[in-house]
């Protein structure tokens, strides 16, 4: 339970700064400046305050969802809902990032070639489990984009495998 709770807190922290990044984008504020100011508060510190396309990997989502399940089983629906929102925020950030790409390309990516540099869930690893890049690729492919993906640590076969999953390719692995 200790490491599960710690992972849930780290996931929560990532989702928190990503929610602030959406607010900063809407108001014209610089999320890096806001994160720096937040990190200077000794009660908070500067770790895990880098806005991103969301968290991935095998632990964070699994541990947060286990916490949601545990809270529901213990009849703590408000607590379960709180932790579910961490997962929902992560998904929102992924969709928001893909939408920004589409918006920057004149509201359509149909037939356009888009390069993704990086595919693993974090730098310097070949681990793609629950990588945000998989989901961003899905959203862009759903809109008709032609993707070119490069990650020096991830094998081509792994990328194809990840993008061929039914939940990603929607029963059309050839796309």
TrEMBL record:
<dbReference type="InterPro" id="IPR036220">
    <property type="entry name" value="UDP-Glc/GDP-Man_DH_C_sf"/>
</dbReference>
<dbReference type="Pfam" id="PF03720">
    <property type="entry name" value="UDPG_MGDP_dh_C"/>
</dbReference>
<dbReference type="InterPro" id="IPR014026">
    <property type="entry name" value="UDP-Glc/GDP-Man_DH_dimer"/>
</dbReference>
<comment type="pathway">
    <text>Nucleotide-sugar biosynthesis; UDP-alpha-D-glucuronate biosynthesis; UDP-alpha-D-glucuronate from UDP-alpha-D-glucose: step 1/1.</text>
</comment>
<dbReference type="Pfam" id="PF00984">
    <property type="entry name" value="UDPG_MGDP_dh"/>
</dbReference>
<dbReference type="InterPro" id="IPR014027">
    <property type="entry name" value="UDP-Glc/GDP-Man_DH_C"/>
</dbReference>
<protein>
    <recommendedName>
        <fullName>UDP-glucose 6-dehydrogenase</fullName>
        <ecNumber>1.1.1.22</ecNumber>
    </recommendedName>
</protein>
<feature type="domain" description="UDP-glucose/GDP-mannose dehydrogenase C-terminal">
    <location>
        <begin position="115"/>
        <end position="173"/>
    </location>
</feature>
<dbReference type="InterPro" id="IPR008927">
    <property type="entry name" value="6-PGluconate_DH-like_C_sf"/>
</dbReference>
<dbReference type="InterPro" id="IPR028356">
    <property type="entry name" value="UDPglc_DH_euk"/>
</dbReference>
